[in-house]
Design goal:
alpha/beta; 39% helix; binds zinc ion
Amino acid sequence: MHYELMLPHQIRKAIAQNWPVALPLGVLEYHGEHMAVGMDTLAVIKALELFEKERDIVILPPFYYGAASYAVAPPEGTGSVQVGGNQLAPFGEELFYSLLRIGFRNIHAIIHHQTENFAAGMPTDLAFKTAGRQAIFRFLEKQRGEGWWGSKDMADYYAGHAAGENFFNWVQVHPLMPAAMNGKYPFDHAGIGETSLMLALCPEAVDAARFADNTAWYTASAKDASAELGHKGVAMIMDHLRATLRSG
Ligand SMILES: [Zn+2]
């Protein structure tokens, strides 16, 4: 369900059943002359909306204002919006802390932007990872008081950990396309891979009549994009979401 449309009794049910709560996390960035600037974030939103057809999930309103950077193009007349990681982390902490206060314990930010080497991290995902950790520590200290970890009640912490309990799993950040897709689906910026994803998920974000206006190296393959290829990528993304976003 889209969070903004939920009634309190539905929110309480989602909490009681520990539904995954997903934040589409992304940027607004120049994606060539043929594709919409919201591509990265739209891919996450549309994939989550597809996923919702098979599983109970809360989809939060998307956050589009990540660190696009000006690596691809300067912003003048191209549309890239840059908010730095140092500004994002405090926002993310407040957001996650608030979601923990509501009662959610199964929160996942999903991002498709600069995620080709996700383990190392990039400014937007690193900021939201930091934000999640900070929010969890703050929440536990408020709820249980300082010294919560050192208290007798926590003597089974490592045993619980081994059994899969982990407070720090309450907030997680994941790439939309996992490392397992490397070599199976083209990862690019505004090339055949991303353009095909949009043709499959959000065709109104692509204007084929503009392919010829592209001059950049990274858009050279875009004209070979197809919805058919995009659907192959979407199927892999759905498998990844099924493994990542679980209730209970
Ligand atoms: Zn992109």
